Amino acid sequence: MVFYFQARPEDGDYTIFMGIDKHENEELIKYGFPEDIWFHVDKMSSAHVYLRLPKGRTFDDIPEGVLEDCAQLVKANSIQGNKINDVDVVYTPWQNLKKTASMDVGQVGFHNPRMVRTVKVEKRINEIINRLNRTKVERNPDFKAEREAVNAAERSERKQQFREKKRREELERLEREKQSELRSYKNLMVAEKMTSNKEIASTTKSLQELEEDFM
């Protein structure tokens, strides 16, 4: 089971979600989306909270309010972290999560530690937690099917982009051939015109010759 929350609407269409236990976390780790940002209390046990970014958004432009929502939710779902102040919450893109066979269920590392950021949560803000809980929805998604559907859609989009690229290249090739033919035709016309002028000059009598004919 996965819990879904709606971040503050004034910041845009952001969905926050987390697994109910470490086994759900394994599925989320395995079948995440490139748009997902992972949150966890640093050096403590906590829920794995994810933020799904809208298309076109990046890790660098998460609104401050949305970031606070995620950090507060992680802190509230940490047995130890919920009891103390000044808690560090780390977050990183899903693609930066590293999972090896030797790791315990729900445990992760990072491919690139420099892509991990930290936000400090001074204290729990009940107003934020209560607002998020009012949007809470429980679902039982098929993570694998969702990931495969996204992969299929991405493959289809890439194929369409490839076909469109080939179509543009073919149109450009035909246009180049057309322009080349036009240039060749113009050159031919110029050459024929020059030849005709020379022939006229060679066959036409000069003014002096015409005058001599009348004398």
TrEMBL record:
Residues 1-112 form the NFACT RNA-binding domain. Residues 148-179 are annotated as: Disordered. It comes from the Eukaryota. Transmembrane segments: none annotated. Belongs to the CCDC25 family. This is NFACT RNA-binding domain-containing protein.
